[in-house]
Amino acid sequence: MDIGTIFDAAFLGLIEGLTEFIPVSSTAHILLAGHFLGFESTGKTFEVLIQLGAILAILSVYFGRLWRMATQLPTSPDARRFVIAILLAFLPAAVIGVIAHDFIKNVLFETPVLICITLIVGGIILAFIDRLDLKPVHHDAMRYPPGLAFKIGVFQCLAMIPGVSRSGATIAGALLMGCDKRSAAEFSFFLAMPTMAGAFAYDLFKNRALLSADDAVIIGVGFIFAFAAALVVVRSLLDFVSRHGFTPFAWWRIAVGTAGLIGLWLWG
């Protein structure tokens, strides 16, 4: 392990933290950046395991609300409904993620052209949805009905394809089903916690025999930078979305996907 690998891990961790909670696909950004940097992780575990840093960033920002929710579970129907809604939204991705894990890691993660195309197509769709004259009826992410939450979870499954974006799929689904932009983004935050924690635990279990001490160091560096960057994003994203919507992210997706295709054409 050389110093260049450490710097690559730090850079990719920064990308993970900056892009995990905005609808641009952090996985696509990491895989494309890693491709052009020549960065290779054991079993493609780095790209999944550093998400723990982003998870902890959410927990640190929302710890007070989540703790109050946990203490109110025995007595509050609203608290129990929220937990049920999150679990129902998490369920579809948990099932499909386990079934399709090897295909996702061994095929989809290794197809940069597909990643670029899904970035561009997803950007066009996100821009179109953001411009629709939708009339939201749900304004509080912690009060989404369980049925609505489950449908949002089905949309999240689209993000099994790198480039689609987990947050982008959940936010787009929520907007189309009557949620306002701020609460859609916030529900995506909450849903990220079990989804990303589950992906982390399952990927670690699957690849535990392959990882070395050097891998642990590289993952640790990426984790630290992902945590720091995600902390900034989580604290500022909701206000940004309330003012500007999601169109800026759509254009970013299109620009990155286009640049990726050009880079692949020039350098392979």
UniProtKB/TrEMBL annotation:
Q: What catalytic activity is recorded? A: di-trans,octa-cis-undecaprenyl diphosphate + H2O = di-trans,octa-cis-undecaprenyl phosphate + phosphate + H(+)
Q: EC number(s) per UniProt?
A: 3.6.1.27
Q: What class of enzyme is it?
A: hydrolase
Q: Which GO terms of the molecular function aspect are on file?
A: undecaprenyl-diphosphatase activity
Q: Which residues cross the membrane?
A: 21-39, 46-67, 79-100, 107-129, 149-175, 187-205, 217-238, 250-267
* Keyword set, alphabetical order: Antibiotic resistance, Cell membrane, Cell shape, Cell wall biogenesis/degradation, Hydrolase, Membrane, Peptidoglycan synthesis, Transmembrane, Transmembrane helix
Which coarse location class describes where this protein primarily resides? membrane
A Pfam family annotated for this chain is: BacA
Q: Which GO terms describe its cellular component?
A: plasma membrane
Topology in the lipid bilayer: Multi-pass membrane protein
Q: Does the keyword Chloroplast apply?
A: no
**Where in or outside the cell?**
Cell membrane
- Set out the biological process GO terms recorded for this chain's protein: cell wall organization; peptidoglycan biosynthetic process; regulation of cell shape; response to antibiotic
> What does the miscellaneous comment read?
Bacitracin is thought to be involved in the inhibition of peptidoglycan synthesis by sequestering undecaprenyl diphosphate, thereby reducing the pool of lipid carrier available.
Q: What PANTHER family does this protein map onto?
A: UNDECAPRENYL-DIPHOSPHATASE
Q: Which HAMAP family match?
A: Undec_diphosphatase
- Kindly give the NCBIfam families that the UniProt entry links to this protein: PRK00281.1-2 (NF001389), PRK00281.1-4 (NF001390), undec_PP_bacA (TIGR00753)
Q: Which family does it belong to?
A: Belongs to the UppP family.
Role, per record:
Catalyzes the dephosphorylation of undecaprenyl diphosphate (UPP). Confers resistance to bacitracin.
The name this protein goes by in its record: Undecaprenyl-diphosphatase
